[in-house]
Design brief:
- By secondary structure, the chain is mainly beta.
- It has one domain: Porin (Beta Barrel).
- The protein has a twelve-stranded antiparallel barrel with strand order 1-2-3-4-6-7-8-9-10-11-12-13.
- The protein is globular and about 50 Å long.
- About 35% of the residues are buried.
Length: about 220
């Protein structure tokens, strides 16, 4: 499954946040990951459709194309403002991933899944993010539980540092660290990430990315 491994870095986190863009607010993220001789370029827009509902897309171009399938994904997140308790913020997300090999003309649905999301601010600088989900691999006709946990630290307004662990019940866990620097606070950010999979040789990955937020339509 192309780029589904958590060792491929995220935006900058692969762990999802329990929040959504407001209605008519969008974001556009793009990043490149490298692992071994493979390189993946992601373009990922997301927009708030209604308050609490967000639609996201992810187009993934892998090179060399003969080594991995190309991929595209669509997901919807529901994280209304009222879904909170004792400082915890909650949400849910569901999505599907499709793939196409270099010698194929048709796309094939390879994965469907859903996750419960939670976010807990520990203080003004530290925040804990948790995801628990269930995924169905359509190609292998197998289902598994998924998990992700991330801890973020924002020492000042322009910097975010994080560490996370994520994976599936039947595979080695993946670990990642990274940082974001806001060129324009909460509007335009640059990311750098590094990750690896436990007990997996040659699994170290590196990534750089950019995110533009608060786009109105």
């Amino acid at each position: 499954m192309a780029m589904s491994d958590g060792a491929w870095a995220g935006r900058p986190l692969s762990t999802d946040d329990a929040s959504a863009n407001s209605q008519a607010q969008c974001q556009l993220e793009s990043w490149q990951d490298s692992i071994g001789g493979l390189r993946a370029v992601h373009v990922s827009p997301a927009c708030g459709l209604l308050d609490g509902f967000e639609l996201g897309l992810d187009v993934i171009r892998v090179s060399p194309a003969t080594e991995q399938a190309q991929a595209r994904a669509v997901g919807i997140k529901w994280a209304p403002e009222w879904a909170s308790w004792q400082g915890l913020r909650f949400g849910v997300k569901a999505g599907t991933l499709s793939e196409k090999a270099h010698d194929e003309h048709a796309w094939h649905q390879s994965l469907v899944g859903a996750s419960a999301l939670a976010r807990l601010p520990l203080n003004a600088q530290w925040t804990l993010h948790l995801n628990l989900g269930r995924e169905r691999n359509k190609l292998e006709q197998a289902s598994t539980n998924s998990y992700a946990a991330a801890l973020t630290w924002s020492p000042e307004a322009r910097w975010l540092v994080f560490g996370e662990v994520l994976g599936h019940a039947n595979s080695p866990a993946c670990q990642a660290v990274g940082l974001r620097y806001w060129l324009l606070p909460d509007k335009l950010g640059l990311d750098a990430t590094a990750g690896r999979s436990n007990a997996t040789p040659d699994s170290r990955s590196w990534g750089i990315g950019i995110g533009w937020y608060g786009i109105s339509f």
